[in-house]
Structures are given as C-alpha cells and as structure tokens.
Amino acid sequence: MQKIYIITLICLLLFGCQATVNTVENEQKNRQLEVVDTSRVSTDAFLKKRLEIVSVDKRELDGGLLKVQVTARNVRTGFWAQLVSWFMGDSPYQIAYRFAWLDINGMQVDTATSTWIPITVIPGDSIRLKAVSPNPRCKYFTLSIRENEAARS
C-alpha cells in the first residue's frame, strides 16, 4: 500500500511540472514589415539549445526611426526536457537582451538605451524582443541575448 502512495506522489510531481504554453494565431497576416536576412553567431551552446530565433522584422517609422521585432521561441518542451530543466533550475528560462544600433557605415551609435532588459521565457512560449532606434541615423542593429544570471541567484 505504501508503494502505491509513493508511486502516485512521484507521478503527480513529474506530471505537475509541465508548464508549457500552447499558442494559436491567425495564419493570414497583413503586415507592413520588412523581413530581415540574419547572420547569427552563437558562442553559447547552453542558450542555443533553449532559444530559437523564428523571425526578424523591421519597419521604418515616420521620422526615419527604425522599429525592430525579433520573435524567439523556447524550444525546451516535452516531459524529459522539462525534467532536465527543472533539475538544472532553468524553468522558466531567464534571459536578458539588448540592442546595439549601427549607422549606415556600420559604426556603433552610442546611446543611453543600450541596457540589458531581463525577460522570462516559459517552455514552448514565443516572445517578441522589440526596440526602436534612438535616432534616424541608426540603420542597422545587433541583438545580443544572454542568460540572466542575476535572476537565478
């Protein structure tokens, strides 16, 4: 009888840890965005196995400012991935991102807005990282994403 209680408790703990997100969205989108060809350099295998870049879109606003939206998805879904994430303490996943803005010649434009922004990513969830350029001279951007170590401690 005691075995049944232990097995039931273990099953409840394991299956209760599933905290994924199901998403439904319209298939027909009328967007006025320009899809950006991307070049990715990944130096962090830990982040690479958890976050997938789905799309990078940009649009020029009135006044010449550049609006950017990067859609990413947490690929850590499923029972075993959740179990590993739970044991490692990274579920939900804590990241931080920042945009660096570049001028037409590819030179970085120093701004006060280039700060790390923390965000929580639930397993299976898609997030949108958004930014608007600080001035019309900014024509390109670089997005940096890292684990948010401050949130884990």
Structural commentary:
This protein is of the alpha+beta class. Helices cover 22% and strands 35% of the residues. A four-stranded antiparallel beta sheet has the order 1-2-3-7, with no helix packed on it. The chain starts with a helix and ends with a helix. The protein has four helices and eight strands; from the N terminus they run H-E-H-E-E-H-E-E-E-E-E-H. The protein has a single domain, classed as Immunoglobulin-like. The radius of gyration is 20 Å and the shape is elongated.
In terms of topology, how is this protein built?
Blueprint: H1 2-16, E1 34-35, H2 45-48, E2 51-60, E3 66-74, H3 79-88, E4 93-102, E5 108-109, E6 117-121, E7 126-132, E8 140-147, H4 149-152
